[in-house]
């Protein structure tokens, strides 16, 4: 005969196993998101290194801002360094962007 305590313990173990599975899944998704941002920031960095004149292409600026802002907000150190480097290169190419992001550089320094 199975006691009530054994049923509760079995149920608790099943629930904990499910929770561990969900935690592992969330960690994997977080890592994938981090790696996707890292790849995208590296591509953005390479693109910005190839630019030699004023950036008048709004699509390029939008692309960079779409990657940079979430990365800065995520507090991921590795990707944040890439984002700051992208901001720096972008600021060298466009005065308006420099004025928009100069507060970030002031906070860093």
Question: What is the strand and helix layout of this fold?
Answer:
Layout: H1 4-50, H2 58-74, H3 77-93, H4 95-108
Helix pairs in contact: 1-2, 1-3, 2-3, 3-4
Round the Cα radius of gyration to an integer and report it: 22 Å
Distance between the termini: 69 Å
Q: Kindly state the percentage of residues in helix.
A: over 70%
> Which outline best applies?
elongated
Please work out how many helical segments DSSP would assign: 4
Order of SSEs, N→C?
Answer: HHHH
Mean pLDDT reading? 79
Strand content: under 5%
> Helix- and strand-based class?
mainly alpha
Q: Number of DSSP strands?
A: 0
- Number of folding domains? 1
Uncertain runs: none
Query: Regarding quaternary structure, how should these chains be classified?
Result: single chain
Largest sheet: none
Give an overview of the whole structure.
- The chain has 109 residues and is mostly helical.
- It has one domain (4-108).
- The chain contains four helices and no strands.
- The protein has helices at residues 4-50, 58-74, 77-93, 95-108.
- Helix 1 (4-50) packs antiparallel against helix 2 and helix 2 (58-74) packs antiparallel against helix 3 (77-93).
- The longest helix has 47 residues, at 4-50.
- The radius of gyration is 22 Å and the shape is elongated.
- The N and C termini lie far apart (69 Å).
